[in-house]
Inverse folding.
């Protein structure tokens, strides 16, 4: 039994005030921490799309999914833990970088197809996109240089091919 | 040009009226004045209460006894927060209710204005859905949606918060915005595959038990349930809220299971090889620790709400849909098995472990409750409050119809008994209504006596007075070495004088031998409500009892006898 599997839930919800609170309460009531959360307007402006990452017990998560689906403002909620879907995340890393280390930092960034978005006397800010695991790996590689700040957007996802994203 | 404009409040009342609402329960305040103003010239009847909590329980009793939605209208701030207990009560027990709250004027919201409360935010965990109206032209749409959500599928409470400037706005009643509920799911229809699987399990079972809950009553499936039980010769145990969904008086009835259930219901569940739950949600007061709950029985779960499936108890088969429709679909697939031996065993348990109490000596709560229920008959509506008296009522009131048994189950809300009876009597003026309350729970909403008096409602209020918060005392006695704290209700009023202060009739009974005579007089009393105060044995405990955390077969069937003589077994 996977006690603490990571789940990515996507929700299509009504684009109204208070919906985020209603959704968040379902997680909070069961003591589920939300690891990441992305909310944005869906293709049609009446709806919003939420992508939520949470870690926890599968049985509880399945119960929460039915509870989310029961909310009047939720059109549907689906767990993508085992689906093959397109997943992307964007992260900004502000790294300690004196001129003597620049080459090594940029070499690593290049390997990850990172982009330099800001550069100063002793800092460099890099943008990395991709799967969350790739962002994690980049995080590991940058750590020895000293990461001053790190911001991740959280995961967004989309189904492959013709299938529409739930 | 000569278009007739109306206030949003007036339009709202019209929509309610057109949808069959006739009574509104509540008490006004500054931010609901435009709504109350519209009530002055409207055919809707306002039932003025003394407290907002009372209004919600009245709406609740109204709904449970009639199957129609109960409507509440209160003001903002504390008026709104006072409804939360009643909203939770309705949510836990799936009762259709619409709670309309006044709110500060739109420009003041979020600025800590006088009597402003974020009732919308506070409502989220306790409602089926909730709204705040920001465009007055939306009022008709939102009220219609709210009524629809509250009453369809698994019913529940819906809250609509209306800022004062919105309710007072003049709008064109002809213009109506379209309903907009893309996320509201239709009532599920049972999957034929699941129905077949359920039938197979039932046809093969040798020791089956049906566990019937509130869903049976809500869907009006009593008749279908009866057909199924009789055809298959399966005993039926009804949950506290399912009581009456199958007649207590039927040979196949096991009455209530669980913590204070009958010994035979619990023995039947424990000994069964198949439990068929219909519209019952495996409440912890029935299952105890889920892992220990009848591990050897297979389980089928019929429910309209998919959230309940496998929420607590793993099941072998689930059927998601309306109880009545599901049973109807199931019936043709059922072939009676051989349950004769099982029924024989159950009848032996019924004979060996009946519910009982001593009628001699001091007056017992059970005695007067049983006598009142018998004299009032099964056509009367029985309401209860929460506590020991509630469990005794569950044991000794014999119900034949779900809508004649009204009690707060899931939330266990003390103070429910009196106002719910007021609501029930208003919904069904032709029925006799009695309510059984404890001296503790009664005092939580006793201000509503005034509401019963002004409306001349002939409710019989039986106060079971043991001068204790009896259920807590029982736990402290049994599980905390009788360290009593916070349970002595010293300072109770003289309930007969209290009745007279409200201009009501009061009867007091202290001796078992006077029970019939007093009840006879009280049941004849029809000039408004009356109080029957029964001064009962103080230290009686409710048995059978399954201690919290234990399995059903570890129940304590009778009070342990330390002394051979007399009452007060716990002394």
């Amino acid at each position: 039994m996977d006690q603490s599997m990571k789940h990515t839930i996507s929700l299509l919800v009504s684009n109204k005030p208070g919906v985020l609170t209603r959704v968040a309460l379902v997680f909070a009531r069961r003591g589920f921490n939300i690891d990441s959360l992305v909310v944005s307007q869906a293709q049609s402006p009446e709806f919003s799309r939420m992508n939520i990452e949470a870690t926890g017990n599968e049985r509880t998560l399945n119960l929460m999914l039915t509870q989310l689906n029961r909310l009047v403002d939720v059109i549907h909620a689906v767990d993508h833990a085992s689906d093959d879907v397109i997943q992307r995340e964007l992260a900004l890393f502000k790294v300690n970088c004196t001129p003597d280390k620049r080459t090594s930092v940029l070499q690593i960034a290049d390997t990850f197809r990172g982009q330099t978005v800001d550069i100063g006397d002793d800092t460099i800010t890099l943008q990395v996109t991709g799967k969350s695991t790739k962002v994690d790996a980049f995080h590991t590689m940058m750590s020895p240089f000293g990461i001053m700040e790190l911001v991740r957007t959280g995961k967004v996802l989309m189904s492959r091919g013709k299938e529409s994203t739930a | 040009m000569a278009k007739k404009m109306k206030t949003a409040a007036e339009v709202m009342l019209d929509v309610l009226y057109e949808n069959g609402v006739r009574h509104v329960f509540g008490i006004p305040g500054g931010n609901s004045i435009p709504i109350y103003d519209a009530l002055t010239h409207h055919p809707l009847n306002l039932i003025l209460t003394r407290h907002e909590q009372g209004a919600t329980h009245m709406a609740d009793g109204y709904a449970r006894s009639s199957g129609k939605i109960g409507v509440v209208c209160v003001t903002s701030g504390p008026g709104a927060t006072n409804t939360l207990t009643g909203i939770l009560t309705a949510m836990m027990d799936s009762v259709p209710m619409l709670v309309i709250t006044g709110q500060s004027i739109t420009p003041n919201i979020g600025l800590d204005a006088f009597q402003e409360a974020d009732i919308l935010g506070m409502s989220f965990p306790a409602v089926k859905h909730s709204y705040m109206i920001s465009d007055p032209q939306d009022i008709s749409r939102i009220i219609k949606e709210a009524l629809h959500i509250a009453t369809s599928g698994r019913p529940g409470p819906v809250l609509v918060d209306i800022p004062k400037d919105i309710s007072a706005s003049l709008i064109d009643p002809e213009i109506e915005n379209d309903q907009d509920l893309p996320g509201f799911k239709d009532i599920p229809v049972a999957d034929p595959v699941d129905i077949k699987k359920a039938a197979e399990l039932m046809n093969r079972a040798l020791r089956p038990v049906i566990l019937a809950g509130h869903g049976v009553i809500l869907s009006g499936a009593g008749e279908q349930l009866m057909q199924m039980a009789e055809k298959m010769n399966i005993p039926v145990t009804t949950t506290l809220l399912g009581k009456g969904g199958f007649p207590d008086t039927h040979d196949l009835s096991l009455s209530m299971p669980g913590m204070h259930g009958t010994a035979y219901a619990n023995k039947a569940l424990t000994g069964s090889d198949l439990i068929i739950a219909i519209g019952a949600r495996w409440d912890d007061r029935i299952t105890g620790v889920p892992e220990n709950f009848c591990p050897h029985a297979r389980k089928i779960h019929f429910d309209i709400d998919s959230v309940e499936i496998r929420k607590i108890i793993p099941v072998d088969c689930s059927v998601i849909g309306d109880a009545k429709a599901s049973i109807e679909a199931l019936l043709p697939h059922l072939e009676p098995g051989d349950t004769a031996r099982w029924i024989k065993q159950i009848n032996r348990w019924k004979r060996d472990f009946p519910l009982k109490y001593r009628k001699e000596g001091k007056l017992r709560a059970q005695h007067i409750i049983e006598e009142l229920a018998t004299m009032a008959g099964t056509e009367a509506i029985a309401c209860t409050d929460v506590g020991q008296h509630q469990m005794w009522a569950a044991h000794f009131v014999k119900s034949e119809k779900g809508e004649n048994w009204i009690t707060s189950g899931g939330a266990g809300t003390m103070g429910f008994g009196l106002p719910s009876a007021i609501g029930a009597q208003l919904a069904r003026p032709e029925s006799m209504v009695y309510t059984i309350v404890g001296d503790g729970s009664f005092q939580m909403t006793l201000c509503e006596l005034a509401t019963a008096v002004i409306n001349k409602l002939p409710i019989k209020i039986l106060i079971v007075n043991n001068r204790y918060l009896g259920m807590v005392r029982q736990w402290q006695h049994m599980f905390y070495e009788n360290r009593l704290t916070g349970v002595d209700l010293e300072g109770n009023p003289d309930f007969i004088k209290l009745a007279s202060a409200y201009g009501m009739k009061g009867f007091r009974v202290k001796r078992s031998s006077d029970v019939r005579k007093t009840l006879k007089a009280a049941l004849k009393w029809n000039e408004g409500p009356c109080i029957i105060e029964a001064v009962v044995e103080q230290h009686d405990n409710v048995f059978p009892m399954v201690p919290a955390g234990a399995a059903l077969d570890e129940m304590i069937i009778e009070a342990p006898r330390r002394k051979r003589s007399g009452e007060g077994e716990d002394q």
About this structure: The radius of gyration of chain B is 24 Å. The domain at 365-543 of chain B is CATH 3.40.50.970 (Rossmann fold). Chain B has three domains: 6-171, 192-352, 365-543.
